[in-house]
Design a protein that fits this description.
It is a single chain. With 245 residues, the protein is an alpha/beta fold. Helices cover 37% and strands 21% of the residues. The protein has 8 helices and 12 strands. The strands form 3 sheets. A 7-stranded parallel beta sheet has the order 2-1-3-4-5-9-12, with helices on both faces. A 3-stranded mixed beta sheet has the order 6-7-11. β1, α1 and β2 form a beta-alpha-beta unit. α1 crosses α6 and α5 crosses α7.
Length: 245
């Protein structure tokens, strides 16, 4: 199949293009660096010509409430319109576990808006909601650092390896549309504090990691909202093995 990966030059997109090509598909990366801009529409129609599947793994360059909502709504609207014209039969989007349970988080409100556009578009679709990636634990620590101390929220946390996200997207993109969402999480559930402490220790980062009831995740109180609330697919890569990689 011809599968266009929008956001195909980023962390997930680049690896997904490679995985799909290894499966024998014509995987095409689409991003501003390849001449495809989903905000302006430049290059989108040409990129989607002849495609059976479009996988959207784009991310907003700004995480501020207004710009991130504008990015996901404009980009998704552009894509879905072009897909309708091109006769694309399957739209796959990468989203986040907990999007609909944290309405005070501007980024997640934007992802909810994106999901609604996809659901209402009339194009067969699959939405993969993944938990946070192991690869982002350093950024999470940096966002919660004051001096030499990292203070993180309490509650359950179940991050997943980017490699498992890529493998699941490749499976979903080459299968029949689900017409719904699929949750993906890592095989281990602990606290955010535990994961971040182990990640920093593995790279000999001297910061102290602690937790507290008032701590926030990028400004948002999360509780247990970042882990699957029900049935979910579990990744294969265990955290301790990823740390050794």
């Amino acid at each position: 199949m011809r599968i266009v990966v929008v956001g195909g030059t980023g962390l997930i997109g680049k690896a997904l293009v490679q995985a799909l090509r290894e499966r024998g598909h014509e995987a095409v990366p689409a991003s501003p660096s390849t001449g495809v801009d989903t905000l302006t529409g430049a290059g989108v129609a040409d990129a989607l010509a002849g495609a059976q599947v479009v996988v959207d793994v784009t991310n907003s360059p700004s995480f501020e409430d207004g710009p991130v909502l504008d990015f996901f709504t404009r980009s998704t609207t552009t894509l879905l319109g072009a897909e309708r014209e091109a006769g694309v039969g399957h739209h796959v989007a990468l989203s986040i576990v907990g999007t609909d349970r944290l309405p005070e988080a501007g980024y997640l409100r934007a992802k909810v808006a994106q999901e609604k556009l996809i659901i209402d578009a009339g194009i067969p679709f699959t939405i993969l909601r993944a938990t946070q990636f192991f690869e982002f634990l350093g950024a999470i620590a940096d966002s919660a650092t004051d001096g030499g101390t990292v203070t993180l929220p309490e509650g359950a946390f179940q991050p997943v390896a980017a490699a498992d996200v890529v493998a699941t997207l490749a499976e979903v993109a080459t299968g029949a549309p689900l017409g719904g969402t699929l949750d993906l999480a890592g095989p281990d559930r602990r606290t955010m504090e535990a994961f971040v402490r182990e990640a920093l220790a593995a790279r000999e980062d001297p910061r102290t990691v602690t937790t507290g009831p008032e701590a926030r995740y990028f400004g948002t109180a999360i509780g247990d909202a970042l882990v699957p609330a029900g049935e979910a697919r579990l990744g294969e890569v265990r955290f301790e093995d990823w740390l050794k990689g």
